[in-house]
């Protein structure tokens, strides 16, 4: 009995040791399995921002992000390749990226300069293609010249620093990408950004300083490194309408459309009869509002306000209102254009440039066709000259020196018969009785002066 109990204990001990060995041997396998990404999961949405940062891109990204959220996507890969663009559009897109329910991986392919850098910093993760760069986010004007307004630089510097802070990136590096006065030492890459320069980082440098998580040769490589290679990948491209909207709402194009619209309609109003300038002008305005409408910035109320402005301006030409209709029309027209734009400041700038350019065009066209201008209706151009057959009064200079007889007493004015005509005459002051011979001594216009013979 004692012997059987001993064998039983030894058996249990052997089983326990075997169990422990199996568990320890399996532990690495379990750990490795846990580290492997689950091939089953929601889709990954790939959205490409490979153009200038402006209102058209903003509209497209808002639609694409809404689709990804509606599909409850696991991740968004935002492919960036841009030289930058409008600060206001960049801010709106940055807010969209950081506020999205779907985490974003920003993937820099080529360049993410200026506004593109700000967008990338708002993403949860940042990956870069070898050879790509990020940075150079200084604020510039339309000609590419650095803006040195301290208030503007301070605002954009703080905005960039806040975006860097979102995911624990060095704020000083973000400031150095904007402000030429900032000096920052980057020991990780053995480099110091000096005063007067704007910082730009290559892909390896961005990884070393903690601005990028990794480099990836392609979107496929990025998904593999992120553990998302087995997911369904959905590419969200721009629709034809979004591409049209992007083209029509670009700063240069919308200003050009306003120039065409203002010049065409004005030429038709002041030099009527052509027809073609008016049609071109209406088409220019139509494309302006169409582009902003399909981009989601303009509503029918903006179009109605603009059409009302045009109607009031036309009415001013035919209805005397002492300028009231003209003022109301101008205000309505400007309000319609500004309200249709995503940014009032840019709309007013485009409108100002368009007005100046259109005024120059209208001036030269009106000068060339001045004989057809509407002003000709209000100007008397006929000349009533002798050559044209007009005589202002009867010519009496032929009477000078002739002799006649008074028909009435001259006291000192009266009537005399000179030749076969009755002529109103006048003396130099003396009185002459009727039936007296008189001689014409002076003719001044219609005044005939006589004296007694």
UniProtKB/TrEMBL annotation:
Keywords: Hydrolase, Membrane, Protease, Transmembrane, Transmembrane helix
Domain NfeD integral membrane: residue ranges: 253-366
Tree of life domain: Bacteria
A molecular function GO annotation: peptidase activity
Membrane protein topology class: Multi-pass membrane protein
InterPro entries reported in the protein's UniProt record: ClpP/crotonase-like_dom_sf (IPR029045), Membrane_assoc_protease (IPR052165), NA-bd_OB-fold (IPR012340), NfeD-like_C (IPR002810), NfeD1b_N (IPR056738), NfeD_membrane (IPR056739)
Annotated organism of origin: Paenibacillus spongiae
Localization: Membrane
Regions that span the bilayer: 258-291, 303-335, 347-366
GO BP, sorted A to Z: proteolysis
Protein name according to UniProt: ATP-dependent Clp protease proteolytic subunit
Ranges for domain NfeD-like C-terminal: 398-451
Residue intervals of the NfeD1b N-terminal domain: 44-235
SUPFAM superfamilies in alphabetical order: ClpP/crotonase, NfeD domain-like
